[in-house]
TrEMBL record:
<keyword id="KW-0472">Membrane</keyword>
<feature type="transmembrane region" description="Helical">
    <location>
        <begin position="269"/>
        <end position="290"/>
    </location>
</feature>
<protein>
    <recommendedName>
        <fullName>ResB-like domain-containing protein</fullName>
    </recommendedName>
</protein>
<dbReference type="InterPro" id="IPR023494">
    <property type="entry name" value="Cyt_c_bgen_Ccs1/CcsB/ResB"/>
</dbReference>
<keyword id="KW-0812">Transmembrane</keyword>
<feature type="region of interest" description="Disordered">
    <location>
        <begin position="68"/>
        <end position="97"/>
    </location>
</feature>
<dbReference type="GO" id="GO:0016020">
    <property type="term" value="C:membrane"/>
</dbReference>
<feature type="domain" description="ResB-like">
    <location>
        <begin position="123"/>
        <end position="539"/>
    </location>
</feature>
<feature type="region of interest" description="Disordered">
    <location>
        <begin position="1"/>
        <end position="23"/>
    </location>
</feature>
<dbReference type="InterPro" id="IPR007816">
    <property type="entry name" value="ResB-like_domain"/>
</dbReference>
<dbReference type="GO" id="GO:0017004">
    <property type="term" value="P:cytochrome complex assembly"/>
</dbReference>
<dbReference type="Pfam" id="PF05140">
    <property type="entry name" value="ResB"/>
</dbReference>
<feature type="compositionally biased region" description="Basic and acidic residues">
    <location>
        <begin position="76"/>
        <end position="91"/>
    </location>
</feature>
<keyword id="KW-0201">Cytochrome c-type biogenesis</keyword>
<feature type="transmembrane region" description="Helical">
    <location>
        <begin position="182"/>
        <end position="201"/>
    </location>
</feature>
<feature type="transmembrane region" description="Helical">
    <location>
        <begin position="118"/>
        <end position="141"/>
    </location>
</feature>
<keyword id="KW-1133">Transmembrane helix</keyword>
Amino acid sequence: MPSPASYLLLNSSKPFHRLPPPRVPRRLHVVTCAAPRGSSGGGGGGRREAISTGKAKKQIVFFDAAPPVSQSQPQEVERSGSGEEVKKDTAGKPAAVGGGNPALALVKRATKKTLSALSNLPLAISEMFAIAGLMALGTVIDQGEAPSYYFEKFPEDNPVFGFITWRWILTPGFDHMFSSPVFLGLLALLAASLMACTYTTQLPMVKVARRWSFTQSGDRIRKQEFSDSLPRASIQDLGVILMGAGYEVFRKGPSLYAFKGLAGRYAPIGVHLAMLFIMAGATLSATGSFKGSVDVPQGLNFVIGDVMKPKGVLSIAPDVFNTEVHVNRFYMEYYDSGEVSQFYSDLSLFNLDGKEVMRKTIKVNDPLRYGGITIYQTDWGFSALSVKKNGEGPFNLAVAPLKINGDKKLYGTFLPLEDADPSNLNSKVKGISMLARDLQSIVLYDQDGKFVGVRRPSSKLPIEINGNEILIEDAIGSTGLDLKTDPGVPIVYAGFGALMLTTCISYLSHSQIWALQDGSTVVVGGKTNRAKLEFSEEMNRLLDKVPELIGANENVVDRKSTAT
């Protein structure tokens, strides 16, 4: 008979399958915890039978496969010399913080140390002084000027105070102080300090203040800033009186807890949030605003977007930049001495369709606001002089500013009468010179430079100069406008409003009172964070109102003494 191997070789065309391994039934061991209910006989060694009672037996089941071993080891807690808890495992080694993850433990320790460093009060005060110093420096140094201005005003060959040159201003960006990296970095650092202080100090204090803390120890109450004992008094009467004084009163058995002025605990958090709002608004103004300046003669116009320049990386041009501004009229008012007292600009705003959307006459300290853009009246100038010569014209003569010492303004123009002789190189154009300090009077000189007279544009009186009749028709002024968008202004105003409100609320005293009924005596104690002298006076006044309890025997004696 062929072997199985030879059979497979001889019949290779027939498929075959590998037999699965035999299944070994898993053994199940059962240990019963139920004691036998009875036996068949009284003698030992007899067979014991379990009596069915209708209740399920408690069983412990053992399997062949052992359960997985847990990776977590029991930990012991010890205290270090500094008082900190140090967890150790069964081997006596310090346990890793953060569930055994070293990276997580390192992050937690670094976060804790960072918050502790940022919430340091001297650091926050130093940051505020540094910011105040930079703000003061920004008012001393002219802001937003061209680099050539600082080259000229702070030269290297003649430093201011012996060491301040243009490098000290342009390198750190102090020519635009309030958007410089140094200033914005200090603002960010102060904001981080405020948030760290709020998280590590103010919020835990509020959580503690909100808890209802009852005490069962009279000695603990007597250790408070104010304490007193009321013999023959009821804690219920004390609670009613405290409620009438504005306290929130809670009672648990013989103990009483009352407080008022919890808003004073929330106020420091509000102060921090208000300061964060102010700094956020200032940062948004420095990095997201636009600014521009323009001098526009009367009767001309300009497009807002043509004169606006971004001030930071967050500056985004709005659609209102397509608005066109037309100067309808520019005029000035004068003091009796002849000096300018106020100047006005009558402005009209037109949209892309040419429709007038707004019109207003602005002046100094009375700007125009439209679509988030503010137009300020800041300066004035002399644009042109309208003149008639021998009845011809009028001719608009361009007026140029003349440089003089001081802040006084002087403008001049020239009306040519004779052309220069081209054959004579030394010959000059002859004409009439006109000077003006403002728009109300014009001083005229003949072609030899001699004074001729003064005329007001509104007088319509001609004057004869070198055989020519000259009539001053009008003095055309130009308005100096500053335009800017400042998206952070509403945030700054809201922050200052919240700061004033929360600062006032922070002066409210947070007062706490504990009381314990010890027999017929009520032990009272309390404390406050402000106005400690006033708190003691208030407590004495309230405790004097607590009625004294009188026993039945004393009441009978009092009645007899009253009857006699």
